[in-house]
Amino acid sequence: MDKQVSREVSRSFRSNNELFSGLGADALGVLAAANSDLALVIARDNKIIDVAYRDRSLKAWDVDEWVGKSWKDTVTVESRDKTDELLQESLKTSPTPSRQVNHPAKSGRDLPIGYRLVSFSGWPHKVALGTDLRPMAEMQQRLVRLQIEMEKDYRKLRDIESRYRILFHVAVEPLIVVEAQTLKILDANDGAVRLLDRSISKLVGKSAATVFAKADQPKATEALTALGLRARAEVFHARPATSDNRMKISVTPFREFGRTNLLVSFSSDEKRHRSLGSQKDATLVSMIDQLPEGVVIVNADGKITQANPAFLDMVRVVDLDRVEDKGLDNWLGGSSVDLQVLMSNLREHGTVRRFSSVIRDELGGSENVDVTATRIDGPEGTHFGFAVREQAHGEQAQAGGFNLHPGSSTQFTDLVGRVPLKDLVRDTADVIERLCIEAALRLTDNNRASAADMLGLSRQSLYIKLKRYGISDAEDGDD
């Protein structure tokens, strides 16, 4: 990056002869070195006669060895034309405008220097006054990295918004989003457009009461207002404005941009539901296949029944036949205990969010992943759906870091010099071991056999450690 400066001095000394007549060569050398981070004396044949610098770190670029070499031979290939231009400009003006020139390094980054050439009448040499541009280059690199991170975050937000729009509009049930305070409609999906026979533009901004039959509008308004205040999901029945059949109205409050909104779903009888569902099956399957996260469905025994291409890519498998009817624990989890813990929580709670685990592929590799799962109860029995997302590097670093408790590192470092290192290491290892055992017991609901498997210990070794750390107060019936 070239930094252009003015060729004219806005004000110079008016009595140079009187002020500097007594100065000798030493004084000129001091002025040249003080006015720059790196100064070069260049002869008529463009060879470097001598160098001067203030920062000793410049020795890493072998600055002392430049003496006797042509100035062009000390710079990178793309900077050679700049040195020629500086030498040509020095024949017309002094000092020349500043230009950035890069000096190569044996290893690491090049050295960026902004040079100005100064020549004197009657003196055969030229002085190259250089300014170290490394701080500016580092600042530019930091700005570039920050801009890249901001673009990644912006892209991620756009992807999340696009995903929400897709899921919202391909949903089978008619859906509208209502602001809890004003009961104004904020959004509606295609199902609501078909049910209410109005376009999205004609629904947005209208009162939510207008989508219900006139006789049911007071009841619907009262129910929506009450549910917005209680912020609790509930159901009531009412007739839409375009039908005489009563429908089940499911209302789910959620927070968005600091305010409470209501997701209102219209559900009809089973026959109509199946009719609408058959029209959307192909679209839903296509959408799941296009998702960047891995999606896999297993039966009650943990055997895979469906998987999208993203999951097959994660486990390095070509087609679904290679994984169908095989246990998901062949690829998900550090051991079979991970899947057991997941399915146990799904049977009890119905959903699991951001469960940290590991995905193992057919080539022996592994990646840290976050798993979101849900239980699906249908006519063909209970199934479980898993969405698997690879953790970003920042998340992996955060997940991998282990913090014993607030202030623990300070407490341990304060003991340095008073307690032998081997004792500090032993005590720290004991604290980490105890925390890992307690975490395994929590994840397995105090099932010690599963906890031992998760920790890679035998049951006897686990019992010994429980007794050692005083965790044996937990109930003994682990199976």
Structural summary, described in words:
With 479 residues, the protein is of the alpha+beta class. It has five domains: 117 residues, PAS domain (Beta-Lactamase, 2-Layer Sandwich); 31 residues; 105 residues, Beta-Lactamase (2-Layer Sandwich), CATH 3.30.450.20; 109 residues, 2-Layer Sandwich (Beta-Lactamase); 67 residues, Arc Repressor Mutant, subunit A (Orthogonal Bundle). Helix content is 39%, strand content 23%. It contains 15 helices and 15 strands. The strands form three sheets. The chain has a five-stranded antiparallel β-sheet. The longest helix is centred in the first third of the chain and has 37 residues. The N terminus and C terminus are likely disordered.
The number of distinct structural domains comes to 5
Class by SSE composition: alpha+beta
Q: How confident overall, as mean pLDDT?
A: 78
User: Which blocks of ≥5 consecutive residues have pLDDT under 50?
Assistant: 1-9, 269-277, 395-408, 474-479
CATH superfamily of the largest domain: PAS domain
| β-sheet strand percentage | 15-25%
* Helix fraction by DSSP (H/I, runs of at least 4): 25-40%
Shape: extended
N-to-C span:
70 Å
What is the CATH domain class of the largest domain?
A: Alpha Beta
CATH fold field value of the largest domain: Beta-Lactamase
Number of strands: 15
The rounded Rg comes to: 36 Å
- Order of secondary-structure elements: HHEEHEEEHEEHHHEEEHEEHHEEEHHHHH
Largest sheet: 5 strands, antiparallel
Count, helices: 15
How is the largest sheet built, in terms of strand order? 2-1-5-4-3
